[in-house]
């Protein structure tokens, strides 16, 4: 029977912590406000505050032991927030790449542009579909594109990394919409010339304006730098036919289409899927790049939470040892208070308040360190197409709140058992302890 009670207690504790971590921030504020009101307005609450003030007044004498809790929890929160900020930054970059007024057409069943293949005849049929915007001359705003992967040395490193070389059509800038040239000029069709994304220029060697870089066993001249504010900043762009000739490809990977109106996507999709000469899949670029981000960000999130849990276990044990030692050192003081009429609940609440305060300070410290060191920090990682994506860590307010929730959860587990022990020790036994 006792085993079942203990198992049920642990299950309830874990369920409560899970709900705490998953709760929205506004619900947490309500719970804090209700708890604070109960502490101030009830007799036992005021007793708990009085006991907690006495305990906090002794913190300078226990600064070494108390710092174990603070530093341990700060480390957990800092690492957790940093890892989740990496996943969040990558997802934000990829989701910013797409829009609702552009679409991407791929071979049906393809997992991405590298696995897709479209013939020139199919590209011509796609451009004739309804719902596509046209320029002043009546030409459909489409860009047949060929994506290949090239190797370039990373800046400040001797190792090579994959970079995406995108061959684009003559109307690529109008079809994509967000690409702006910030240095140099656009490439000349038919020549081995490149324009590089601002992120790729920053992360890779040999792709500065005016540099000559060897791709596909041929030299290419960097004639311009562009900025799109999304994942395309990690790419090199060149003329699609020239890339196809250099890499001996006969077709294209995808077609980027600018819609006349976002509402025309359904008409475009229906027309392409109903054409028996085509075997394609159609998505808005927003949906496509959001799907591309899911796998990588899920892995980063799982790794981040796994590392956080492992570190949290260490922080919990540190908090348990510290608070057990603190309760033991204050055993006679707590027993005296109970003999004077302070109940067990105020003692439990007082010990919990002390631990939660230390946990909160540790969470704030860890979040501040993560924000100061990593917010806006630029890195690159392998994306869904096996090429590097340059992005920035994004330490959002939601992540900082998540870190504080983890900190308070660790503090609660680390304080509840010492608190219960302090309340359960018989007064007569505690008064006899040295």
Summed up, the helix count is 14
In percent terms, what proportion of residues is strand?
15-25%
> Could you list the spans in which at least 5 consecutive residues all have pLDDT below 50?
none
End-to-end Cα distance: 35 Å
Number of domains: 2
Query: Which percent bin holds the helix content?
Result: 55-70%
Mean pLDDT: 83
Global geometry: elongated
Number of strands: 12
Q: Over the alpha carbons, how many angstroms does the gyration radius reach?
A: 30 Å
Biggest sheet architecture: 10 strands, mixed
Can you write the helix and strand succession as a string?
HHHHEHEEHEEHEEEHEHEHHHEEHH
Task: Indicate the structural class.
Answer: alpha+beta
Keywords: Cell membrane, Membrane, Transmembrane, Transmembrane helix
Subcellular location: Cell membrane
Membrane topology: Multi-pass membrane protein
Domain ABC3 transporter permease C-terminal: 306-426
Kindly describe this structure:
This protein has 434 residues and is of the alpha+beta class. The chain has two domains: 24-95 and 293-432, no CATH class; 109-278, no CATH class. 56% of the residues lie in helices and 17% in strands. The protein contains 14 helices and twelve strands. It has helices spanning 2-22, 25-41, 43-57, 63-97, 120-127, 172-176, 198-203, 240-246, 265-274, 285-329, 331-339, 344-374, 397-424, 427-432, and strands at 102-107, 142-153, 160-168, 180-184, 193-197, 212-215, 218-227, 236-239, 254-258, 280-284, 378-382, 388-392. The strands form two sheets. Strands 1, 2, 3, 4, 5, 6, 7, 8, 9 and 10 form a ten-stranded mixed β-sheet that branches. A two-stranded antiparallel sheet has the order 11-12. Helix 2 (25-41) packs across helix 3 and helix 4 (63-97) runs antiparallel to helix 10 (285-329). The two termini are 35 Å apart.
């Amino acid at each position: 029977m006792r085993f079942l009670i203990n198992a049920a207690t642990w299950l309830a504790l874990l369920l409560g912590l899970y709900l705490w971590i998953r709760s929205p921030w506004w619900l947490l504020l309500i719970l804090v406000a209700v708890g604070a009101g109960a502490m101030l307005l009830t007799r036992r609450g005021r007793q708990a505050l009085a006991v907690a003030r006495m305990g906090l007044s002794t913190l300078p004498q226990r600064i070494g032991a108390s710092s174990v809790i603070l530093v341990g929890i700060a480390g957990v929160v800092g690492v957790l927030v940093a890892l989740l900020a990496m996943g969040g930054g990558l997802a934000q970059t990829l989701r910013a790449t797409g829009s609702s007024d552009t679409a991407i057409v791929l071979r049906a069943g393809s997992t991405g542009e590298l696995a897709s293949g479209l013939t020139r005849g199919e590209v011509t049929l796609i451009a004739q579909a309804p719902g596509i915007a046209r320029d002043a001359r009546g030409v459909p705003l489409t860009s047949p594109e060929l994506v290949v992967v090239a190797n370039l040395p990373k800046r400040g490193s001797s190792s090579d990394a994959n970079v995406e070389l995108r061959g684009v059509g003559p109307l690529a800038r109008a079809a994509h919409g967000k690409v702006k040239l910030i240095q140099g000029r656009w490439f000349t069709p038919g020549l081995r010339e490149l324009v590089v994304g601002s992120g790729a220029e920053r992360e890779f060697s040999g792709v500065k304006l005016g540099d000559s870089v060897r791709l596909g066993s041929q030299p290419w001249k960097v004639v311009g730098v562009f900025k799109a504010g999304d994942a395309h900043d990690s790419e090199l762009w060149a003329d699609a036919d020239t890339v196809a000739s250099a890499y001996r490809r006969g077709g294209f990977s995808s077609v980027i289409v600018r819609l006349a109106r976002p509402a025309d996507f359904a008409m475009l999709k229906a027309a392409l899927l109903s054409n028996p000469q085509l075997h394609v899949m159609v998505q808005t670029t927003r949906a496509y790049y959001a799907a591309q981000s899911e796998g990588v960000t899920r892995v980063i999130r799982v790794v981040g939470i796994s590392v956080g849990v492992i570190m949290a276990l260490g922080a919990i044990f540190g908090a348990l040892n510290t608070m057990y030692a603190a309760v033991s050192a204050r055993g006679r003081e707590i027993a005296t208070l109970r003999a004077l009429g302070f109940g067990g609940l105020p003692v439990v609440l007082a010990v919990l308040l002390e631990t939660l305060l230390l946990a909160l300070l540790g969470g704030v410290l860890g979040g501040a360190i993560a924000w100061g060191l990593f917010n806006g920090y630029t890195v690159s990682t392998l994306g869904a197409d096996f090429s590097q994506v340059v992005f920035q860590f994004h330490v959002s307010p939601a992540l900082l709140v998540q870190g504080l929730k983890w900190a308070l959860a660790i503090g609660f587990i680390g304080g509840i058992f010492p608190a219960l022990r302090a309340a359960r020790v018989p007064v007569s036994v505690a008064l006899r302890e040295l």
